[in-house]
Amino acid sequence: MAGNLKQVANRAGVSLATASRVLSGSDYPVSAELRERVLAVAAEMDYVPNAHARALIQGAQRTVGILVGEVGDPYFDAMLNGAHRVATEESCLVTIVSTGRDPEKELEGFRLMQSHGSTIIVVAGSGLHDPAYQEALSARIRSFTGRTVLIGRHALSEGVSAIRVEADNVGAGRMLGEHLREHGHRHVGVISGSGRVTSTGDRIEGLAQGLGFRPQVLEVPATRDGGYEATARLLEGQHDLTAIVGTADQMAIGALAYCADHGISVPHDLSVAGCNDIWVGRELTPSLTTVHIPLEEMGAAALRLALSDDVRSTVQSFPVQLVVRNSTGPSPDLTSPA
After folding, report:
1. Angle at which helices 74-89 and 249-261 cross, to 10°
2. How far is CA 240 from CA 38, 185, 187, 196, 268, in A?
3. Is there a contact between 332 and 267 (Cβ–Cβ < 8 Å)?
4. The 3-state secondary structure of 164-225, one letter per residue
5. SS3 sequence of 75-116
6. Are the beta carbons of 242 and 332 closer than 8 angstroms?
7. Distances (CA, A) of 15 to 9, 25, 38, 118, 240
8. What pLDDT shows up at residue 311?
9. Per-residue b/e over 294-320, b at no fewer than 16 CB within 10 Å?
């Protein structure tokens, strides 16, 4: 059984105050001999410091709440991995709440984290085109005495501020559109997650800019199965499609699965692309063309900014990069006999 602070002090032959100063990380001067003795006894007794008590002494309890759409979704998992890495380095306690991208659940999750004493709350995932949600989120941030970090583009009420970590989703869509246009694709279908999500709308807008026209968009659940079913519907309704883009990789993976099941050669008959660059995309056959969004780095940056004593900028933007793999190629319109 682990010893408590009083037991450590007694065994080390020092006062309770001295033991506390050594084990709390206080900068109060303690001789090297006493410090080494206390640390040795603490290790021997498997002493575990009380984080809440330390926070009261130091004035900073490092407890982090992270709101995600879905635990297990590769998009959110990558951001969580980055945040967890920093939390481990900085000895922070992390609580995760999965909201299913339901605005009411997200706002209730924010309130729950406040009530449990979180000093940092990270809202992972883009904002929503929903004035009522924007106003309610702004009210929650305004009432929170800690630091709020928003990953992705969120609109807030005037006068409400938060730390922001963003990526260029319009640019991501534009890169995909230009890539497909350069390969002669003029008939493109888009498998989209919810249009209420700002990153989704931004990617579609960028894709239209890159293509030079607005593609057909089919909104489905942002899952592999949603992408599979949407591909069937797109190909049934538009027989001249030469490319399909998923606004997230998992939907593009569903499109690849549909093609494999129905004898459609990718990219000879149909090019397929996604966005985010989740790890499994490179392992597929064919490997998936996508845009790399540095999700893990964004999760890490969110927590580093929130923990920093000197936040000189409340916004950190990350570049994105087109990753061309084997799932895209020239349009069949260019390679078919005249």
Report:
1. 140
2. 76, 10, 7, 29, 14
3. no
4. EEEECHHHHHHHHHHHHHHCCCCCEEEEECCCCEHHHHHHHHHHHHHHCCCCEEEECCCCHH
5. HHHHHHHHHHHHHHHCCCEEEEEECCCCHHHHHHHHHHHHHC
6. yes
7. 6, 16, 10, 32, 82
8. 64
9. bbbbbbbbbbbbbbeeeeeeeebeeeb
User: Per-residue confidence at 98, pLDDT binned at 50, 70, 90?
Assistant: very high
pLDDT over 50 (residue 267): yes
* Average pLDDT taken over every residue of the chain: 90
Per-residue pLDDT, averaged over 7-12, amounts to 89
Considering only CA atoms, which of 74, 239, 252 is closest in space to residue 180? 252
Token couple for 265: 């050669």
* Axis-axis angle for helices 32-44, 16-23 (nearest 10): 80
CA–CA dist 116, 63 (Å, integer): 9
Model confidence, pTM: 0.81
